Amino acid sequence: MRASGCQQFRSLGTGYNRATNHTVEVTCVEICFFLEQSDTMLKEVVTAIYQAHPYEEPIIFIQNCLRTLRIRGADIDNPNRFWNRQGVDWVPKAVAQKHEQVSGALRFTQTG
User: Fold this and answer.
1) Euclidean distance between CA atoms 53 and 68, whole angstroms
2) Domain spans in the chain, listed from the N-terminal domain onward
3) How far apart are CA 93 and CA 90, in angstroms?
4) Which of 7, 17, 57, 105 could, after both became Cys, cross-link 11 (CB 3.0–4.6 A)?
5) What is the CA radius of gyration of the chain?
6) What is the pLDDT of residue 112?
7) Tens digit of each residue's pLDDT (9 = 90 or more) over 75-84
8) pLDDT tens-digit profile of 4-53?
């Protein structure tokens, strides 16, 4: 799930719903996912979304894209990776301190 929010809807009576004078608010979410490149799977997913979605016409964006997947161990020595850096400036100080406390406790337990 990428985002959540609220949508507003008022039926004008031009679709299946009868016309209403008031606006209805509906909680909504944006979901983003990847599929393998398969026309059959894509058709099944879009059909399932239409069947499960409460709107007459759900908003669906379909886009071809490339996705990278990490190959475990392939770049373990890369100096640009965060685990190979001396400083941990990307970690908030409170998290770094907590990590140090836990690491110290583990070292004590292992050597004690």
Assistant:
1) 30
2) 3-52, 85-111
3) 9
4) 17
5) 25
6) 45
7) 888 888 877 7
8) 788 888 888 887 778 888 988 888 888 888 888 899 999 999 999 999 88
